[in-house]
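Q: Structure tokens for this one, please.
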Amino acid sequence: LPKYAILPIIAALLINNCIYIGAAQLRNHLSFYSLAISLDEKIPLLTPFVIFYVLAYVQWALNYILIGRDSKKLCYQFVLGDILSKVICLFFFILFPTTLTRPEITGTDIFSQLVRFIYSVDAPVNLFPSIHCLESWCCIRAAYKMNFKTEKRTNYYRVATILMSLGIFASTLFIKQHVIADVAGGVILAELCFCIGRKTELYRIYEKFGSRIEQKILKFTE
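A: Here is the predicted structure, written as tokens:
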């Protein structure tokens, strides 16, 4: 990663974790709603899709790195949209908390065991909008703003990102981590915040103040 990308990406990751983990700690003090519809109940449990759910973290990490390496402007715009989306998520998690009823996982195969592990470490809270879907949609949008050394590589990355993201969307439903409304909410919020980051000059706020912090950190570490 270039030096200009390190601080904003770390800030985005810290804010994401603080919001997700912090909101989850309030679950015993909130009244939860359900956004499940009849169609959600008809979606089968397909535990092999947990692979997409887990690999989502790899895609996000790769996307952050590639955006950071693309250009300072795209990096700042992307991070602005990312942080803004997480702040909005916090309001939903606290003011309109949702939950769902998870099925009992009885299988003994590796996929079932992995789903049980996810259930054990991630309570059915912080569901709407789905951060898994939000981040994956941002990956798709960013893929169409980045350019690699050749057009062929660029097209490969875009197709791979779309296919992987669609698998992630499906995984949130097939392993019963989210309902359809969560997926739609994540995509809509991601699109809104990505556009704000790209179409406005708000990213220059960080460019102005964040750059000063970066310079001080670099001087301290030299």
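A few notes: The mean pLDDT is 92. The longest helix spans residues 72-95.
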